[in-house]
Write a structure and sequence with these properties.
Largest sheet: none
Number of helices: 15
Structural class: mainly alpha
Number of domains: 1
Radius of gyration: 20 Å
Strand content: under 5%
Order of helices and strands: HHHHHHHHHHHHHHH
CATH superfamily: Amino acid/polyamine transporter I
CATH architecture: Up-down Bundle
Distance between the termini: 7 Å
Family: Belongs to the amino acid-polyamine-organocation (APC) superfamily. Spore germination protein (SGP) (TC 2.A.3.9) family.
CATH topology: Amino acid/polyamine transporter I
Main location: membrane
Pfam family, one: Spore_permease
Membrane topology: Multi-pass membrane protein
Subcellular location: Membrane
Length: about 375
């Protein structure tokens, strides 16, 4: 099933970059602070535990995709349970994704007016990010992935250099006690934060754009491993510089870490570079989220093209962004969403795999 008449195949490297950027958007929000609050000084273990929990989910996704020649999950649901179920699941995923993107745009706007644009109305930032997302997503995932690939090397270099510079200024004893609130509590927290990787659901919708199953598998495992490493590194550096419980009080942790970089006369105040990396990843992530929501609508309704849905869904995302009355409410709701969205995002492919394994015996491929 093609996403539109003009879509092409997706390269492995470009897909890896796109999925990784989509997953790491929340890293630049308040999430490092939430991890610190939930797991204490052991917060760096939480992404690794969450990664181990998500791997079996992706194995289910990979096996279902392999069984049906990399058809999209919604197309497979239509084959298994009928057209009306496919339509309902498409609408359901669309609503969840629009809400998810809307809150990301709101937090992004709050960050911009707090740090760089204090006199700019937040509505200008939110609407501009929505329009830019539509512009990037309009020509399809192939072009969007190439844009991400062009920006990714610079963004990741700036991010890693900043992280390592500020990390060398930290104190290793700030990481103690090593197990935070305890080993069992840390494992429980890791399971609760499996939503760190919920954006991997993107692969269930774009599976037809991969030429080979091997590429699909490598992109999934590679992006999960890479983003888990980035999350872990960030938490370590955060606690090296902010002793607990101070780490759980930092508003935008990565921005505050960038402000700490000071190599005397050589380098000071690198946070503008961090803002560049943050804005780049967030902009691509919002565009991918809008594309994914339009794609869910397209596949659920069996429409021939996703593009007519982009602007209306972006408008709905803007409406969602203005629902919270304050930045605190937006942050709290987004954190709550990160806890509950993995239930449908992970549950649907796992349930599909169980159903296919137990009841489906027809080996024909989807057309």
């Amino acid at each position: 099933m093609k996403q539109s008449s003009q879509e092409g195949y997706l390269g492995g490297i470009e897909a890896f970059v796109l999925v990784s950027m989509f997953i790491t958007v929340k890293l630049f929000f308040h999430i490092p602070r939430e991890l610190s609050s939930a797991a204490g000084t052991a917060s760096w273990m939480v992404p690794l535990i969450a990664f181990l929990g998500v791997v079996p989910v992706f194995l289910c996704v990979e096996r279902v995709a392999n069984r049906f020649s990399r058809a999209s999950l919604l197309s497979i649901s239509g084959l298994l349970w009928g057209r009306y179920v496919q339509w309902f699941l498409g609408l359901f995923l669309t609503v969840l994704l629009v809400v998810h993107v809307g809150y990301q745009m709101r937090i992004f706007g709050e960050f911009m007016i707090t740090t760089l644009l204090p006199n700019t109305p937040i509505s200008v930032v939110i609407i501009s990010s929505a329009l830019l997302g539509v512009f990037l997503a309009y020509n399809g995932l192939e072009n969007l992935s190439r844009t991400a690939w062009l920006l990714f090397p610079l963004a990741i270099v700036v991010f890693l250099v900043s992280i390592f510079l500020v990390g060398f200024q930290g104190h290793i004893y700030y990481l103690s006690p090593w197990l935070g609130y305890g080993g069992v509590a840390t494992i429980e927290t890791g399971i609760r934060f499996m939503g760190l990787f919920k954006e991997i659901v993107l692969l269930t919708l774009i599976a037809p754009l991969f030429r080979k199953q091997k590429t699909f598998r490598q992109v999934g495992f590679g992006s999960l491993l890479f983003t888990a490493s980035i999350y872990t590194l960030t938490q370590i550096v955060l606690h090296l510089n902010f002793p607990f419980p101070g780490a759980r009080e930092v508003g935008f942790p990565l921005y505050q870490l960038g402000r700490l970089i000071n190599l005397q006369f050589a380098i000071q105040r690198l946070e503008p570079f961090m803002v560049f990396a943050w804005s780049t990843v967030t902009t691509i992530g919002i565009a991918v989220g809008l594309y994914e929501s339009a794609l869910a609508t397209t596949q659920g309704s069996r429409a021939p093209d996703f593009r007519p849905f982009l602007f209306p869904l972006a408008a709905l995302a803007v409406v969602v962004a203005f629902i919270p009355e304050s930045s605190i409410e937006a942050v709290n709701t987004y954190t709550y969403l990160m806890m509950i969205l993995p239930i449908p995002f992970y549950g649907l492919p796992v349930f599909t795999w169980i159903w296919v394994t137990l009841f489906y015996r027809n080996s024909e491929e989807l057309k």
